[in-house]
Amino acid sequence: MTLDAFSDRLRLVSERPIINKTAIPGMFDFHLEFVSDETATGFALPDDASGPSMFTAIQEQLGLKLEPTRGPAEFLVIDHVEKPDAN
């Protein structure tokens, strides 16, 4: 998959959107092993869970680095609500 598709897939285990800013084109095969954070997945981890976090695994296993940043986002703003008339 492309790095754009990979960053979209990482959103499933991350609390934040992940955006590909590498501009590296092409298709890649990814194999990434990490322990998901309970807060990100909503599921409790087993007692014997050990391994790197997603952020550490991406840097150590793929040579990529996730950096927090601010940027524009899409959201819906509701500025007025009324009950419907009783026709």
Task: Map the helices and strands.
Layout: H1 3-10, H2 38-41, H3 54-62
Structure, explained:
With 87 residues, this protein is mainly α. The chain has one domain (1-87). The chain is built from three helices and no strands. It has helices at residues 3-10, 38-41, 54-62.
The topology string of helices and strands comes to HHH
Give the strand tally.
0
Tally of alpha and pi helices: 3
Mean pLDDT: 82
Biggest beta sheet attributes: none
User: What ranges have pLDDT less than 50 throughout 5 or more consecutive residues?
Assistant: none
Which terms summarize this structure?
mainly alpha, 87 residues, single chain, 24% helix
Write a brief structural summary.
The chain has 87 residues and is mostly helical. 24% of the residues lie in helices and 0% in strands.
